[in-house]
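INTERNAL AUDIT FORM
Audit reference: QA-55
Scope: verify that the stored structure record matches its stored sequence.
Auditor: D.O.
Record contents follow.
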Amino acid sequence: MTNLFSKLRKYEIMIRKVANNHLQGEYQSLFKGSGLEFDDLRPYQYGDDVRTIEWKVSAKGHGTFVKTFREDKEQSVFFLLDISASQDIGQEGNRKIDQGKIIAGVLTLAAVFEGSQVGLISYSDEKEKLILPAKGGKQGVKMIKGIFEHENKSLKTDLNGLFTFALNLIKKRAVVVVISDFIDSGYERPFRALAERHDLVAIQLTDPRESILPSLGIIPVYDKERGKTTWVNTAFGSFSKKIADTFTTERANLKDICKKNQINYLTIDTTQDIVAPLIELFKYRNKSMKRG
């Protein structure tokens, strides 16, 4: 556990330093400005962050209105970690699930360092691990143990269940970081609802093998979530194209949902180092906060 903490802390410090350098000392925080509570409505002014527009009120035809917020001293950052079997793809030690846990660990340390409360929901097709938000070093240790030492009760996926559970649990506005491969369907409605209530970040984990299937003839493909083996003929070009097209379409659909609902979207491949993509996320959120 000591080695793990050292590794995560090293990543976290590296990200903080590079973000600072890239932003010429203007770097604020990945989480700052998000621990806000709704205060009032006022007419839209040029330069306002479009994410603060209250569309339901504006649609009534009396002008465009934006939400104003006041700082919530007890800011919470919730990590929603998908730990289903579809995450178990990639090279040993560098699978999607490994990347996801490291990202959750690094961002946990960053949030603790900034004085935020941190909480965790690990989920398969049921609640696997729940850690309610708290501050400080002890909570950081509890979070890291919860992320890395938990053993699954189930291998199946239910993102609809995860997002619905989070909606019912998290009442006050929070930063909600979803870490998943998003390989599921029927989750869009509660996902959008989370974006309406909270400051939502979606980190999608991917692996090249998901979309590029080598031609190996007829091979057995084992589905861990269903516990079944299916024989498929990879020699057919149409089969490989269908696989690639499916992943391309699903990712494009997720990106589109995120764009329309002001959700910060980031994709990280298992072959990538996590530092550069996370720095891009820091930079983007920092820029958005300055505009707001």
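Auditor finding: record pair retrieved intact. Residues 24-28 have pLDDT under 50 and may be disordered.
Action required: none
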